Amino acid sequence: MTTGATNLSTPGLARRIQAALYRRPRSQLLLLLLPPVGWFGVVYLGSLAVLLVSAFWYLDPVTSAVKHDFTLQNFQLLVSDPVYLKVTLRTVTIAVLVTIIDMIAAFPIAYYMARVASNRVRAALVTAVLLPLWAGYLVKVYAWRVILAQGGPLDWLLRQLGFPDASPGFSDLSMVIVFSYLWLPYMITPIYAGLERIPSSLLEASADLGGRNATTFRRVILPLALPAVAAGSIFTFSLTLGDYITPTLVSNSQFIGNVVFASQGVSNNVPFAAAFALVPTGIMAAYLLLARRLGAFDAL
Amino acid sequence: MNRFGLRIATGAVIVFLYLPIAIIALYAFDASRVQVWPIAVYTTSWFGVAFQNQDMIDAFSLSIRIGLAATTVAIVLGTLAALAIHRFSFFGRSSISFLFVLPIALPGIVTGMALNATINATGIGFNAFTITVGHATFCIVVAYNNVIARLRRSSRSIEEASMDLGASTFQTFRYVTFPAVRTAIVAGGLLAFALSFDEVVVTIFTAGTDQTLPIWIYNTLFRASQRPIVNVVALLVVVVSIVPVYVAQRLTSGGEPDGPS
What we know:
The structure holds 2 protein chains of 2 kinds.
Chain A: H1 2-9, H2 13-23, H3 25-54, E1 58-59, E2 66-67, H4 73-80, H5 82-116, H6 119-130, H7 137-148, H8 153-160, H9 172-197, H10 200-208, H11 213-241, H12 245-250, H13 256-265, H14 270-293
Antiparallel strand pairs in A: 1-2
Helix pairs in contact in A: 5-9, 5-11, 9-11, 10-11, 11-14, 13-14
Chain B: H1 3-27, H2 45-50, H3 54-87, H4 93-105, H5 108-122, H6 128-153, H7 157-164, H8 169-198, H9 203-207, H10 213-220, H11 227-251
Helix pairs in contact in B: 1-11, 3-6, 3-8, 3-10, 4-6, 6-8, 7-8, 8-11, 10-11
């Protein structure tokens, strides 16, 4: 604490700043908040704004340079060519399927962790569920590409079991499996936290009032866990919606992301890519509003 | 569902989560150039080949440097934000954490394309700098989540005691607040590094010709001749990502690491 003593005897600049800050907590708040919010505002919100604006620009057909003039042609193209509607429907359908599968797969393990397992087992399971989340997204998709490939482990296993042609190979079904695999921990974690918060007394009360296990589950546990399920579904739905690498690696289908990626990369048409990227943005905005009504944000 | 059924379901999910990672780890030791299951001969010789691949080494070192830079920015900004939110109430306070989670909660293609459109429109140019800025932006939430969770658990009264005993704002931060959140900052930093080290969906949109390790894998995995090397690097990525996360878990003792959510 010698520094403090020195500061006290000679009220230097640092001391005066501190005193000024102490008297004006608002400027303290501003100093703390300005760097992170400033960074975020400029880099992220700024970028989202640029995305929105660039969607109304166009490529000069002669020079292939981006013209910064207002046009609706990107959106006209999106609406007029049925292929974009088809890609959007495929992306959304698979995102919904993956979300439902993950809800069903996550509930039993989350319930076991929250209400059955001992403290020690619970802690181990929490770690076990979270670790794969960090094992490298691309590596996990690549692992599935290897597993699903012809002559790969799954193909081999099905052959041994007597189903020589049953392997899904690279297909839409494979995509559903791989997405469900990838985002499952994002669903387990919030449901586990949500179920753990339910007071045991409520379940006992339900049993005392004559509710069987199934009734208690349907009328007490499920409604109380709904915000947590909605919170998890934000991730499963959104992460599927925004992917293009998994479709490339384990299927022959295109997602919105594939079209966006190819438009900005291969054909250098950033305005069109930006316009199509607004579609998942809009879908997600609607989804977030719905999730908020279900109380998802309190369970995040 | 009875207890037995729950146990079976839990076990099945855990096996499902780890099986693909185990299989890719096995393939790293596959002697054959052509991947066929079951693996006939095991070898460690591909490790030597992989570690002599200059492109891979460059990508690895770029990933490490970007991870460290992005983590530093994320720690500073995330900690400042956590202190502000914890200590003050102000208009828009409740939306801040929602704002920080947006880069991860919004579809990757949206975040990626937004950054891409901005880099294009401003003419900054795609390079390691733009990758780092993108990574730092979506890593802030991880650092923020860890620090705010710790602040909420620690008592505000010890800071007040420090001030009552005559310590200045900076001294209180240095001797009281910072030691309380130090391990949370380290844990958040480790998680942020792991997130940066892995990320590929957004990164490709900000990268230009620079290759991070995941981008190198993505560009190389379609080349059949390179597959043994890709398998080795895949295992390397798993290890480099999981070790910091495991350490972070130990640091936030008793609690789970606050995931990307």
